[in-house]
Amino acid sequence: MNAQAWQSELAVGASRSGRLLALAALTFALLALAILAFTTTNLWVALLWSGVVLMALPALYLGTRVEIDHSLFQRLASMQEIDSDPLSSLDKALAELNLSVSSNSGRPLVARIARLLKLVRRLGACVALQTVLALMAVWLR
Fold this sequence. Notes:
The protein has four helices and no strands.
């Protein structure tokens, strides 16, 4: 395997972890909604649980973006050699579907993987914030 194939495999692994993070964000939101619906809490605790619910919105958006990238990187990882031709074909397909701006075309594979990792880190930050908010809500209860 060449370096690009290994990089694609790492991107697939990162996107799988993004799936788990998106699931965690959704689980936190459902837990918070259940607590808000079935218990009586003071205003501060209710605001914290509402914050947990609201943080699920950007997390689910990021999870969707990571999931789209997952299938693309999985396809790239299955190719024997990744040169500029599959990437230019991918850019063309994304541009035709209005999923990419023309300034993003021609990016190397490393830049694409770096962007995916940035999305996964942002998703992790959303889940971390949900965790902190939930712990504060439990502590103030």
